[in-house]
Amino acid sequence: MDIEEMRRQLRALTDRAEITDLLDRYLRSLDAGVFDEEWAREFHTEDVTAEMPIGTVHGRDALLSHVRRGMALFDRTVHLGTNAVIEIDGDRATARGAQLSTHVLADGPGGLFVSAGHADNELVRTADGWRISASALRVVWTRGTPPRLPEDFALAAPATPTAPAA
Predict the structure, then answer these.
(1) CA 74 – CA 57 distance, rounded (Å)
(2) Which are the contacts of 71, defined by CB distance < 8 A and separation ≥ 6?
(3) Above 90 in pLDDT, residue 150?
(4) Burial of 155 (0-12, 13-18, 19+ CB in 10 A)
């Protein structure tokens, strides 16, 4: 193996590790609950597009506002991501993984809401490292009581399939 091939492989491994770290830190940040401008810059490009169960937003400022409002519906959360398949093409990448999210509702005594689905992300390499430029969370099943959404969220929220009761 020549030096150039080793450099290429090292770059690919480093990129994959950095993207995995970014996505893991993003999910953990949702549970930490600190959503400020630094949070938004740490994970997203300025022109990010995000499709979420509570609507689609365009731009980092809109995403920040939407996440703040959405996460305020919960007292506590645990977000787990796994099985990410990462494809890297130069300074762009895609990542698709599974996501399981457990939420304790803020508006009820111990109400629990669980959702699972697929997280699709597009990423770009920036001067500050990899950032998410587009994301889509597609929920495939839910369990428990969903949060009561404010009317403006309810209008934008797509329907999500629910698993039959056990």
Answers:
(1) 20
(2) 30, 33, 35, 77
(3) no
(4) exposed
* Cα separations in angstroms, 22 against 11, 84, 103, 153: 16, 12, 22, 27
Q: Can you tell me whether residue 112 is helix, strand or coil?
A: strand
What single-letter amino acid sits at 66?
Answer: H
- Around 59, how many Cα atoms within 13 Å sit in the side-chain half-sphere? 3
- Residue pLDDT, tens place only, 81-116: 999 999 999 999 999 999 999 999 998 777 999 999
The amino acid sitting at 121 is: N
Which tokens go with 38?
């630094």
Q: What is the pLDDT of residues 36-66, one digit of tens each?
A: 999 999 999 999 999 998 889 999 999 999 9
Query: At 15, is the secondary structure helix, strand, or coil?
Result: helix
- Helical H segments across 33-164, by residue range: 37-43, 60-71, 151-156
Computed over every residue of the chain, the mean pLDDT equals 91
Three-class secondary structure of residue 162 per DSSP: coil
Half-sphere exposure of 47 (CA within 13 A, CB side): 2
> What is this structure's pTM?
0.88
